[in-house]
Amino acid sequence: MKSTRNAATAWSRGPALCALIGAALSAQGWAAAGRVEAIGGVRPSYYTEAQAARGGAAFQKQCSNCHTVDQARPARIPYGGNLAGTRFASKRYNGRPLYPSVYYIWRKLEEMPADNTERVPNAEKLDILAYLLQQNGLPPGASELKADPSVMKSLLIDQPGFEHMFNGYDFTGLKFNLGFFCTPAPQGCGKTDPAPEFRIEDGMIVTGGKMHSMMYTEKKYLNYTLQLEQRFDYKWDDDEALFPGNSGVIAFMSDDARVWPQKMILVDGRYYDFMNIQAVGTTVKKMFDDDARRRAVKGPNEWQYIEIVSRNGEVKAWLNGTLVSSFTGDDLKEPTHIGFQNQGIPTRWRHIRIKPE
Hints:
The longest helix is centred in the N-terminal third of the chain and has 14 residues, at 49-62. The protein has six helices and 17 strands. A hairpin with a 2-residue loop joins strand 14 and strand 15. It has two domains: 2-154, no CATH class; 163-356, Exo-inulinase, domain 1 (Jelly Rolls), CATH 2.60.120.560. Helix 2 packs across helix 4. The strands form three sheets. Strands 3, 5, 6, 8, 12, 13, 14, 15 and 17 form a nine-stranded antiparallel beta sheet that branches. A six-stranded antiparallel beta sheet has the order 4-7-16-9-10-11, with no helix packed on it. It has a two-stranded antiparallel sheet with strand order 1-2. The chain is α+β, with helices and mostly antiparallel strands.
C-alpha cells in the first residue's frame, strides 16, 4: 500500500475531483463482478440508471472544468485526462496494478477534491463514479453503487491481456480437494466441497487452516504470466525466521490432483524459504537466490506479491518485484492445472489473474 500511495501523491495535487477515477476505467477495463451475499445469492449491480444520471450532472458541476468524457474534446488541463479513455486502464507501479479493484479508486476518491475533501459529499462522489462506469460501457442494474468496501473489493478491474482466476465473488473456474494424500471424490477420499475450509470474504479467498488442502484451476496452462497476492492470517510475536506458515503455488501438477500430487513442481510458500523450488516425481534444474528472498520478503502477516512466468519449459518466480527463483525441466511441455496449497495455517489470496500466451 505504501508504494501505491507514493505513486499517487503527485496526482492528488491537482484541483479536480476526478483526477484518479479514470486511471482504471475503460470499456475493456472492468470485469462485471460483484459479491454474492449468500450461497446462491445474486451479485450486486454496479449502479442504476438514475444514479448515473445524477452522476452526469455532478460530473459537469465538479469535474468538467478539468476533465472530459468526450473523445472528441481534450481535457482543459494537461493532467486532467479523458475519463472515458483507455490510457490509464493498465496503470502500474513496480510491475503491479495500481487499481486492482473499485475499492482502491474509491479510497483515492475519498481524498478529493484537493481544496477540501469534505466539500463534495460521498453520495455525490458515488454518483460520479456510477456515471463514469456508464461512460465506460458497464450496464446498469437494479441496485445503486454503495460505499461498501466489502463489495468494492469484489468489483475487480481487468488488466489488458489478463483474465481472473478468481472473480472476487464465487469459486467459478476453481476446484478443491481437502484431505491429506487423498484424490478427489468420488473415486478418492478427498472432499471437493470447499466449505467450510475455504470461504470468500471481501473479495479474498480465505482458508481456515484446519486441514491440508488444495485449490486448483479447472483450466490447464503451459505458457503464462500468473500474478497474485498472498498473506498468512496467523498471529506471531516471535522470530520471523521461525514463522511456521506454509503454502505455495503448484506450477506443474499431475492430473491425480492428490493432496499432494504424485508429480508436481511447487513454487514454495513456506515462509522461511519463500519461492524455493520443490520437485516431486520429476527432475528440474533450479536456481534459488536466498539473499534476494531475504531482501524481498515482507512480514509474515503482510501481503506478498507473487509473479510466476512460465514459457517454453522455463519458469521464473518473482517475490514483491524481485526475481528469487527459476527452474527448467525436460518434461515441462504439456499444459497442467495450477494449484494453490495450504498446510494448516490460515491463508488469504486475492487478485489472482493470469495472462495465457
